[in-house]
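Reopening this ticket.

The earlier resolution said the output was attached, but the attachment link was broken on my side. Pasting everything inline this time so it's all in one place.
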Amino acid sequence: MAILRIDKLKGNQVKASDEHTERQRETKNADPQKLKDNIYLIGEPGLNLRESVNEEIKKSSWTTKTGQKKTGKPKPDSVECIEFFMGASPEFFGESETDRLNKALEFADKAGEYMK
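Inline output:
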């Protein structure tokens, strides 16, 4: 089974998502020992997502419905980033550690190409 989850993140959701992904808070359905197995298509482990999103927002600009050019901080209820999660059922990756690693790397390459 393949999994593709797409979420719009606003405000505190950005930090909460980062804490969940990096296992900085308890996540009952996740094994913290497997954090090292995460593969990041963009960014890298330990990168502070909240800070990264803030930097991108500062660099961005947009045009309002009335044609006014805006930069900097968006409204409090604005979507600040979109999170993509791609995964597959454990059976897909195989039994041996070597099979799992090879399949995970192949999956990450194909997922990255698909997202581009």
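Reporter confirms the inline version is readable. The two ends are 22 Å apart (CA to CA). The first helix runs from residue 12 to 21.
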